[in-house]
Structures are given as structure tokens and as C-alpha cells.
Amino acid sequence: MSGRSQVHPSPQRTPVLFQAGTSKLGTAFASKHAEAIFLNCVNASQAKKVIADMRAATTAQGRDPHSLKFFPCFMPFIGSDTEDAKRKHDLAKKFADPVAGLAQFSGYTGIDLASFPLDEPMDLSSMSQAMAIQAVFRSLEASEGEEKQLWTPRRLGMRMALGGLHPCPVGTASEVADVIQEWIEEADIDGCNIGSVTNPGSWTDVVDLLVPELQRRGLYWDEYDVPGGTFRENLLGSKELRPDHYGSGFKWKEHAVCGVKRKRELGERVDSGIEDRSLT
Length: 280
Prior knowledge:
By secondary structure, this protein is an alpha/beta fold.
């Protein structure tokens, strides 16, 4: 074996580094290592604060704050008109499984709600995780824009099954584009991570209805910035890690050359084969 890997590296060398997580530890990690962030925020105002804080942390690491890109998830219900969108949303609710949604919630939080009757308001006073669950409920309420209602396991499970903490706009392509545009202008997001409700129906609606509307508004590209280029070239303008990224200092070629130089300084015999490979 003549190198660290048996396969050729991609033109990018290091793949684009995505990360999810905006906790204190997650922010510290992202500010040093991430190039893009998956966001899980319920509204644009919440996302605005998260993004501003993470860009500030990135600046403190000596990096360009706009070299860190943010992609919140949207799970839209898009119709040819408002009634069509509502029909699709109602159909999704008909087939959604609240128990599956609760399982997803338990997987995210580590909190088992199986002991609570599905249709009775949850009394969380005796649970050590009560404050954490209430925080989730407040976030969900903020995303729904509804008057305060009692939370039952069924209501929580249905909400999780239909998008959870992600924004789930229901409407025409223009109405859904309004929501995305609000996030772009208020929160300073760089793109979207679209979640599907049905396959291939959700993707067909995005491609045929939503993308043309976003293009008409100048919010979505018509062609790649670097046609035929790598993902990083089109996302960040460079093929490899930017010079201000922590990982840019770790390159096999550079370390091999340094190793040869050090051997020369020590007067040791240098294997010409290793030297030749490091310099090619």
C-alpha cells in the first residue's frame, strides 16, 4: 500500500462538512469544523438568533462568518391552489400515526411517554424531564401560531408525525415561497433542506411548483455558479477547504514532505521512493 487509502480522493479532497446541533457544545464544534449546518428551528426569529450566535462564534475562530452556511428544514404541503394544498394536508393527517410520532419524539429526547393515555392531558409534574418537555411544547406552539391548547400524547404524536419542529407551510407555491423568503430576509439562511410527506408526490410539487416560483423571485439559481464543478465550489467558491478552516492544515502531501525534510536535517538516510511519492 502506497498511501493512507486504497481509493482515489474526490476532487474536493475533504467532503463538504455538514453538522447538526446548536447546543453550546454543538456551536463550539461547528464554529471550528463545520462548513454547513442543518437547522431545526420553528420560526424565522428563532433561527435569526441561532445563526447570528453561530456566525459570531465562527468569527472568533478566525474564520469568515459567511463561510458557514445554514440550511433549515421545511416540510411544505404545496397545492395548485389553496384548496388543493389543504386537501393534501388533510390526507396526510388521515394516514399519520401518532404512536409513530411519539416514538420519534422519544428517540429525539430520550423521554418515554408510553405510560400516558393517548387522549388525556399530560401531567408532567412528577417527571424529572418536565421542564424539557414543556420547552418542546412552547416551541411547537410557536411554530403553529395557535392559541394555547392542552397537550395530549395524541396531539404531540400527530405534530411529530407531520413535521415536528420543522416549519410545515400549507398553501400554493407562492404562499410557501413567502415563508421561505421571510426566513431568507429575516434569519439570513443560505438554503433549505426540504422534507417529504409522500414519495414522489412531495418532490414533484417542489420541482414543478415551488422551484419555478422561487426562480421568478430571484431566490433560487437557474444554473450552477461553477457548471460541472464540485459541491464545495458551488457552495463556497473553492474546491478544497478554505485556508481559514481548521482542517486545511492537515494534508497528507504536506506532512510527507515535512517528514522528508526532517530526516534530512537529522542526517538520516531518506528512502528515495518515499521522497518521490511525497513530491508528486
